[in-house]
Specification:
The chain is of the alpha+beta class. 46% of the residues lie in helices and 13% in strands. The protein contains 13 helices and 5 strands. A 5-stranded antiparallel sheet has the order 2-1-5-4-3. Helix 4 runs parallel beside helix 11. The longest helix has 15 residues.
Length: 284
Amino acid sequence: MSDNELGAFLRSRREAVSPVEAGLPAGPRRRTPGLRRSELAILAGVSVEYVTRLEQGRDRNPSPQVLGALADALHLSVQDRILLRRLAKEAGGDLVFCAQAVPPTRTVRAGLRAMLDRLEPTPAVLLNWIGDVLAYTAGYERLAGPLGLLDAGQPNMLRYVFTDERARTVFPGWDRLADEQVAHLRHEAALQDPYVAALADELTVTAGAPFSDRLAAVPAMPRRTGSDVVVHPEAGTLRLAYETLALPDDGQRMVVHLPADDATASALDRLNGRQPGALRAVRG
């Protein structure tokens, strides 16, 4: 096994991307396969010397921002971005959390579970401050399961929105949804929180500019109410209003989804195997 796997990976991906794929003119016949180091440096906004040091293993601590820019320039898939991040962590040492940092809670109080039970068959979900999905109603499982949102061992709303290709298909208003998820991440806890910072670093690499540009933008308060359109593979197009209940003492929030029109109410009833009328549309 090479002691410079990060450098070897970057070089192999650079040599596999053609100038045309990277948005550059093809130019004359070249001896170097793929992109030149100078071309990758320009596309990623770093120096040629820095790209050289990374590939040669003389620099083993690239920042998440640099890794994200390189991944964008190389048009890496999500899986390759995940591998890039792992190789960088192994090369430079993993993140060490402050012993005093309180990890995001993944426990659910009995009272909150009871609230979710009472909300059936309404789709409702409980999230912690980094977007981990902690608990949900059966109605939410029938809504979100076919979207792929619950596929991961520990489902996370931000990872799904930014790294699962299905999210852009099922949410036509993906840009607004992405804005909202970053706003929640920035608002629920300080970016200096090591667990927020770790997730932000991860998504800077695995999602690239769509995430990092939003994180660097002027902060905005997350909306607590609104509406989403969901193109559901089983129920068709759904128009859902949502209400958010903040639970600051628990470091959590509950999001309740309600049908915004009669067609959506009927579609959710069918999805839940219930007679029409179990859910009623909320207007205004």
